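Sequence design from tokenized structure. All designs in this work follow the same two-part layout: the structure record, then the generated sequence. An example of the structure record is given first.
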């Protein structure tokens, strides 16, 4: 079903793509971290539109690793954006489970199958191809995922399958969020008549 969905924002942020030259995913993160090794909480609020208490809650629950010297890394920001992308359509405990399914314990890179900045890049690349593409079956989504992750090198046997499944869920969750936002806009238009 084609809902005529468009996305003007960089996924997980409140920034319009045009502000960043159309960049999303890894290219967007590279622009943010071009001259710095980290971003502060105030910058994350400007990027993601989440308040400090929400992020503090995520830190306290262990969903995001505490920053070093009050600076968040590229992978920490990517994780925050991924959580932010899904939180309107999935329960936070399910989002945490999904990200743990992909990368194990937050902050322990030894059990990661992929850097979270690369995961975010894959998600954005998939969304760029899917949004506005019309009807899409699950099989064609899996095909697009396989094309997108063709450069992924498994850290251990089965990692590609885990990544494929997680990407399917993340993309579906975000697309559901876009459909919900469109429905909300349509209802608002009815009220304004």
């Amino acid at each position: 079903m084609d809902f005529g969905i468009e996305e003007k924002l960089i996924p997980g942020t409140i920034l319009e793509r045009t502000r960043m030259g159309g960049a999303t995913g890894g290219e967007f993160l590279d622009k943010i971290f071009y001259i710095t090794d980290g971003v502060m909480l105030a910058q994350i609020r400007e990027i993601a539109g989440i308040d400090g208490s929400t992020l503090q809650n995520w830190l306290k629950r262990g969903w995001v690793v505490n920053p070093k010297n009050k600076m968040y890394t590229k992978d920490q920001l990517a994780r925050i954006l991924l959580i932010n992308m899904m939180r309107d359509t999935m329960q936070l405990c399910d989002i945490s489970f999904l990200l743990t399914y992909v990368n194990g314990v937050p902050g322990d890179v030894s059990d990661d199958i992929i850097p979270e900045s690369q995961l975010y890049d894959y998600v954005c690349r998939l969304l760029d191809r899917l949004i506005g593409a019309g009807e899409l079956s699950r099989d064609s989504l899996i095909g697009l995922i396989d094309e997108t992750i063709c450069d992924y090198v498994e850290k251990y046997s089965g990692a590609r399958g885990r990544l494929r499944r997680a990407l399917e869920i993340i993309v579906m969750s975000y697309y559901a969020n876009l459909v919900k936002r469109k429905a909300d806009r349509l209802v608002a238009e009815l009220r304004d008549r």
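Residues 28 and 148 are 17 Å apart (CA to CA). We note this feature because it recurs in several other targets discussed in the main text.
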